[in-house]
Structures are given as structure tokens and as C-alpha cells.
Amino acid sequence: MNPPLAAQRGHTPTLIAAFLHFDLSFMLWVLPGALGVYIAESLELTQAETALVVAVPILSGALLRLPMGLLSDQIGAKRVGAGMLAFLFLPLALGWQAVNSLHGWLGIGLLLGTAGASFAVALPLASRWYPAERQGLVMGIAAAGNSGTVIANLLAPRLANQVGWHNVLGLAMLPLALVLVAFVLVAKDAPKPAARRERLPVRLVLKQADLWWFCLFYGITFGGYVGLTSFFPVFLRGQYEVSPILAGYLTALVAFAGSAIRPLGGYLADRFGGMRMLSLLLAAIGTTYGAISLLPPLGALMALAVIGIACLGMGNGAVFQLVPRRFQNEIGFATGVVGAFGGIGGFLLPNLLANVKGISGSYAPGFLVLTACCFGALLVIRGLAVLSSGWRMSWGTAAPRTSAPARVQMAPYML
User: Fold this and answer.
1) Which of 54, 96, 297, 345 has a CA-to-CA distance to 395 between 20 and 30 Å?
2) Partners of 413 in the β-ladder
3) CA atoms within 13 Å, Cβ hemisphere of 176
4) For the chain, how many structural domains are there in total?
5) Is 207 or 360 the better-scoring residue by pLDDT?
């Protein structure tokens, strides 16, 4: 089988391995947040110190996506992915047996942030096996591994009550070992095409204006997903005075909505065009934020939150239907950059809501700011559709699959 034909047919075992890699990594990435209450009580942390323990892995994971994505382009995503999983035994073992201080936990958070870089490895690993017209669905399936948030929030508090939070970190090494073995056995790097355009140097990729537009859009969609799901228990307790256990269950519900529906966003982007889907979803997300700013009763709030998080999840899928089409040969590095800004968005959103609440006494202005960000991004993407033939034409309904899709013209370099 020649390499181009193999890539056209795809590789289901690798797609499953990429999903498992991302799911397990995401679970470990948000584990400090799921155990935050127990860690704070054990180490007698202030609220600000607790927030730092929870936030450090998110930020370090976002920043590590850049070098991990570049490395996966250079030596192969399977090697990098296996190395990342093996490395994660270190912070889990230290947290299980050795760390009992704030400074120690901040160090654990920096190391555990490696799990957040899975995004820049698992997604390109799956993406390279499939043609452009299937990228939305494939990337959506692989990235649905952000359901690890649901797993962490459902299981970690229950286990902490039974065996203690330190031992939860030890138990987490069991699924880590299983996924590492499965990943090594079944994942496979895609064969290189016979005729392949030379990869752009990193400095030229960074000069591509499209890359930074993708960062903006993903900062809103993924940043909204991870930021809201991490802050939602705090918001529910502060605004609606629900119990911590109920807040955890409700958070798991909205997180599941966003992760489960992400593949649908990718599929619809394949069917109708990523730009068109993203435009509709940005409008829907902005409208939902505006409705939440009214701080409705809890039942209505939950309905809006599920809708909003679901749209954010589909928006993630729509963005990553576009990225592989634009940066086919630089997908690892481009995914790392765009994914990093998604993580930074997730770091900024809780701080925005918390600081606005502290200044004004209400969460409403914070959600209005988020509304303005969404509609501002909507204006940007519509402007790109007018000014750039690439944005306007290449991401509509896929053409008949008579030949491999050509690389399309995009927006010019930034000056």
C-alpha cells in the first residue's frame, strides 16, 4: 500500500490510542482542581494559594504545548506521546509519597502540566492519518478526550473520601500504566506522502496571520470550556449556595455536554464548512453568555450552561477542522501554538470572573465582557471571509472526493 493511500484510508487503532492518550492526560491535568478542597484542608492553604495550586498545571500545560508540538513534528508524535506518559509517573509518585507543602505542590503542578501538552501530540498523531475532508470528525473524536474532566470530578472526590487524597495520586498511576502500554502497542505514526511540500520554518509559521486568528478563536472556545468547567463549582457555590458535592455533579454534567458533542462540531464543520459553523457557534456562545449575565434561577442557569458548554465544545471541533487544512505539514507546531492559547484563555477566564465579582459584587459584568469577546470574534471571522479568498472558499462544503484536496490560499503573512 503506498503511503498516500494509507493516509486516505486512516488508521482506527491510532485514532483510539490518540483518544485514550488525551483522555487520560486531561484527567491528570485537572486532577489538582478535583482534589483542591482536600489539598487546601490538608495543607491549610488560603483561597488564593488554593487557586494557585489549581491554576499552575493549566498554565504550564498551555506553555508546554508549544515545544511538544514542535518536537512531535520533528521526531514523531508516537515517540513524544509515549515519553510524556512515562514522565507523568514522576509527579504522581512525588505527590503520592513526598509532597506536603505549598511550594512542593506548585512544583508538582509544573510537572503535571506536561499532561496538558497531550493536545499537541495526540491530535496531530490522529490527524496525519486522514484526508482533509475528514479532519473535523477525526479531530473531534480525538479531542473528545477532554471528557477526562468529567472522570476526574466524578471519581477523585469520592476516592479521596475513602482512601485519602494522597492515595488518589497513587491510584491514578494504574490507568496511566494501562494507557501507556496500549498507546505503545497500537499507536502508529502515519507514513509520509510520496510528494510532500517542504515544512515551513518555525519563524515563517509564526508570521502567518491565520495562526493568530486561530489562537483568538480557540482561546474563546477551548478557553471557555476549560475555564468555565474549572470555575463552575465556585460560581455555583458563591451565587446559588449549593453544596460542594452538588456543585461537583452539576459541573460534571456541563463538562460532559461539551466533551461528548465536540465530535459533532467537527462532523458538521466537515459537512457545512468550519468557518460557517464557527460563525454560528460564536453567535450562540455570545448569546448564552449574555443570558447567563442575568443570573437566572438555578434551573434556567443549568439549561443555559449546558447549551453554552455544548456550543463551546462544538466550537473546539470547528476550529480544529480548520487548523489541519491550513497547516498540513506544520500541524504539530500549529496545534501546539493554538492549543497553548486555548489553555491561556482557560487560565484567564476564571480570574476575570473572580476579579469582576470582587470589584463589582456581581458576576454579571464578567459574563457581559465574555459576550463582547464572542461577538468581537464573530466580526473578525466575517471580516476574514470578506477579505481572504482562503477563508471564504476553502472551508465550505467539501468537494467530491475525486482527488486529494489541494493546499489552499490563506490570509497573507503578518507584516
Assistant:
1) 345
2) 208
3) 26
4) 1
5) 360
Given a cut of 50, whether residue 314 has pLDDT beyond it is: yes
Contacts of 50 (CB under 8 A, 6+ apart): 36, 39, 40
> What is residue 37's predicted lDDT score, i.e. its pLDDT?
74
In the prediction, which pLDDT does 4 show?
Answer: 47
DSSP state of 118: G
pLDDT tens track for 56-102:
888 888 888 888 877 887 788 889 999 999 999 999 999 888 777 88
Query: Per the domain annotation, does 405 fall within a domain?
Result: no
DSSP string for residues in 349-412: HHHHHHHHHHHHS-SHHHHHHHHHHHHHHHHHHHHHHHH-HHHHHTTSSPPPSSSPPPPPP-PP
Cβ pair 13, 186 in contact under 8 A: yes
**Residue 299, exposed/middle/buried by CB under 10 A (0-12, 13-18, 19+)?**
exposed
Phi, psi of 414 (to 5 degrees): -75, 145
DSSP bridge partners of 208 = 413
3-state secondary structure of 234: helix
Per-residue b/e over 253-278, b at no fewer than 16 CB within 10 Å?
A: bbbbbbbebbbbbbbbbbebbbbbbb
115 lies in a domain? yes
| Measured distance CA(213)–CA(6) in Å, rounded | 32
If you ran DSSP here, which 8-state letter would residue 187 be given? -
Average confidence (pLDDT) over 3-19? 70
Range of the domain at 378: 3-187+201-393
269 found inside a domain: yes
pTM for this predicted structure: 0.75
CA distance 130 to 190: 9
- Report d(CA 134, CA 263) in Å as an integer: 11
| Within a domain: 415 | no
Instruction: Estimate to the nearest angstrom the gap between the alpha carbon of 139 and the chain centroid.
Output: 11
Contact 280, 372 (CB under 8 A): no
pLDDT of residue 204: 78
Report the pLDDT value the prediction gives residue 368, as an integer from 0 to 100. Answer: 95
CB 358 within 8 A of CB 385: no
